[in-house]
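Tutorial, part two.
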Amino acid sequence: MTTSRLLMIEDDARLAQMVQAYLAQSGFEVTHAADGEAGLAQLPLVQPELVILDLMMPGIDGLEVCRRIRALNNEQARVPVLMLTAKGDPMDRIIGLELGADDYLPKPFEPRELLARVRAVLRRRADAGGAGAARSTPVLRFGSLEIDRDARTVTVGEQVAELTSYQFDLLVAMAERAGRVLTRDQIMEAVRGRELEAFDRSIDVHIGRIRSAIEVDSKNPKRILTVRGVGYVFAKQQD
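Running the prediction step on this input gives:
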């Protein structure tokens, strides 16, 4: 069984030990860091495939840790982040997603749900193509926008667009279905993720982040258009 490396940044030692033991049964090697500074120091040493990040910690909190990870000038900036948030606090979740977290899980949580979410995030990263689309070429081009599915990079002209793993997969799913109006459910299904509930507005947060990265004017988008009352459509013809 292949071992996947995870980094858990969490100040609750008992919770971290429980997660380490539980995920180890499914082939995950979990390195624990007790605070944000220690987690950032461990990141280049562990080179994890996913970071489990607690929001509320002493010193620098999870939001700041996530911000610093996404600001790195190397491949580690793209590591998927699963954020642990306070139960019933949607603002923490929205802010976390806006800062670049790929998914969230409210505390307290069932270990089985954490395992399912970890697997789903890693599956999305491994399966960038989405479901059912032809892949005759790894690069999708729409005017000055280029999406390289194999390298998992997005460029607009000469500029690299910074997206999380989940946002990249959302963009690919829509681009491969350019010209089709997609509901939020259809977009989530296309990336094989049911972590977000059907009426969860988090999908809109991710779309907003993608627009900020690839649109000339995110307030007047030309690439990803909103179809009021339905969902979104990725424009076939773009500059």
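The chain has two domains: 4-126, 139-234. In part three we will examine how such features are distributed along the chain.
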